[in-house]
Amino acid sequence: MHRRRGDRRASVSTTPLDGAALASARLADFAAALEFEAIPLEVVQAASDHLLDAIGVGLAAASLPAADKYAAALRELGEGDDATVLGLPGRWPAASAALHNGTLIHSLEFDDTHIASVVHGSSVLAAAALAVAEKSKASGRDLLKAYVVGWEAFIRLGLAAPGLFQPRGFQLTAVGGSSIAALVSSMLLGLDPASTRHALGITASQMSGTFEPLADGSASKALNPGWAAHGGVVAALLAKSGMTGPMTVYEGRFGLYGAFAGDASLGERYVALLRSLGTRWHLPEAALKAYPCCHYIHPFLECADALRMELAARGVLAENIAQITCTGPAGYETVICDPWARKQRPSNGYDAKFSLPYCVSAALSGATIDVPFFAFDTPDPRVLTLASRVMWQRDDEADFPRCFPARVDLQIAGGSVLGRAVDDVFGSPARRMPHEQLIAKFRGNAVLSLTADGVERVLSQLERIAEMPDVRVLGDTLIAA
Fold first, then answer.
1. What local confidence, expressed as pLDDT, does residue 308 receive?
2. Which three-class secondary structure string do you get for 448-478?
3. Residue 252's pLDDT is what?
4. Which of 19, 177, 190, 387 would you label with 337, given CA atoms 20 to 30 Å apart?
């Protein structure tokens, strides 16, 4: 057949139409076939722990003034009785609740991360799963199963392209999250595999989320996982109504990997990773956070805390530090280092969550890096002075993103040098957060929005969520508390 002038069809590459081999088909088929009893107990426990942590972090965020702004805007989207909104009475439509809760969970930078894939899973997955589970009156087992599947799919999404989204300015949690939220939502709505594949494809119209808010300290980065959760819920509802979407949402020329990572062939790597679904479980490797700031900063804070104690033992004050050298992988730079001059002078507390020099200087100065610490509108001049003495040094040999290492060296006025290094961040698979510390973190966060008695009632239900016949009971308890 001869090609007519202007007919460019022959020049456009296409993905083979072997639908069963595509990632969306593998995900939909696995989600439909998985039985709760087939999930190892260790994975179920990890899911329960991460869900508990996410709700606690969201409740802490709900206590801050910014949460009122989110709520006021989202109320304009309409009323409904689908799902609980963290920190507020009553229920909202599922998509609005997912947007609000996902934003809250991520807004403190206190939410979990799977380190090797650089995915903030729960800010997307807990928000979508809780909203749709309540809407559909799902059981706790159904909720946990969907949550586990979402985590396993999400982690592999990042492992197929480790560290390749961030340098292009995209947050994988955001751009990849909508499709995974659609998978979770489809499971809880009871969609068949064909409709689930369409739900995943529909999110090709909803993938978004860059790191540009970090350029000036804007708070809108917190919206990234919220929008992803919202988009996934909406996509599943659209698929349920009969809307169709592309089957090649991952592998296609303009699919997730082609558009956001610059290499469509990575979709084939994702398909390969999906072959281990059900036999290789990654969720227990996800890390819980000890500080409410960017995860890349955490290992530096560990170093700074140890050095501060050594300085105190020597009777050396923070102002006697002449120079601070922070050494870490090149992968950190986009988020916590660039542009360095601006990072040394963050504009407000939210901006400081992504400032390596400010956070390290605050820790060396004796500050407790917790939720209240970042509630400032104007930086502390004393911390700014110390931050001006911080230098960044890149370690090109570090095994990032498989681990989050750091080193901090102090040059003391008079000539002595002190240094500390961390091979991997606390909370990682190699250095898990003890369960009792997770519970203490939940209580400390949840009490910022709930009564003390309410905290214990919610905690009791979350620790037995697999036994819950209807997740709306948990929502009722949250509202009453």
1. 97
2. CCCCHHHHHHHHHHHHCHHHCCCCHHHHHHH
3. 96
4. 177
